[in-house]
Design goal:
Distance between the termini: 32 Å
Oligomer: single chain
Shape: globular
Structural class: mainly beta
Number of strands: 4
């Protein structure tokens, strides 16, 4: 299911937290950062949960919300794929 990550959008609604989330928006759409922020704002990811992200490789590493750590970042042709984790404590780092 595709959900547009806009203010007041689906991802910003309170959600049941998941252990893992896959974010693979339309390839050239510059919405990955907003989608990550929506996941965090809506509480969709459990403390210690993982997020798999895909984006154009030329975009580089994704911008993550505070409290998320980029664990791996690789490239396959034109695709950048990344694995991030939300801090296990669930507390945001400043």
């Amino acid at each position: 299911m595709w959900c547009e990550p806009t203010p007041g959008g689906f991802l910003e609604e309170p959600g049941t937290p998941y252990d893992i989330i896959f974010l693979d928006p339309p390839f050239a759409a510059p919405v990955l950062g907003a989608a990550c922020q929506g996941v965090e704002a809506g509480g969709w990811l459990k403390a210690g949960g993982y997020v798999y992200l895909e984006s154009p490789a030329a975009a580089g590493e994704p911008r993550l919300p505070p409290g998320w750590t980029l664990l791996r970042s690789k490239r396959a042709g034109e695709v950048g794929y990344h694995l991030a984790r939300r801090d296990a404590s669930g507390a945001l780092q400043q």
